Description:
The chain is of the alpha/beta class. 28% of the residues lie in helices and 26% in strands.
Amino acid sequence: MSDLTHLACPHCLAMNRIPTSRLGDGPKCGQCKQPVFTKAPLEVDEKSFHGLVLKGDLPVVVDFWASWCGPCKMMAPAFAEVSGELEPQLRFAKVNTEQSQQLAAQYGIRSIPTLAVFKGGKEIARQAGAMQAGQLRSWLQQYL
């Protein structure tokens, strides 16, 4: 296993190579100098999905949601809380299925919220339905 982790910058989408042992040290993008980790879920759309979710080395937990969805709104604070705790071991992203309908169709999102874990450019797990922070933490332990 390489001692470098490849990650896209959430601000400019430039790929960065970061020593794995330094992921928790607040690395900055080599191109735009912004933080590579935000301690909050990244808002992802069709344009940024490939770089932020599929290309990096870290597993990415994606929340497919919609603004009209009550359970999505109820789960949002728990998703944000867990993202602040588990980053930089995992990355967290949110896809608004109303604005990114093509992504939702491409990944066969039939109900929301749906959480999917991607690693190495492939979906490796999926869970439909809202979860509380403790449930989400427990579910994600296997990907740390």
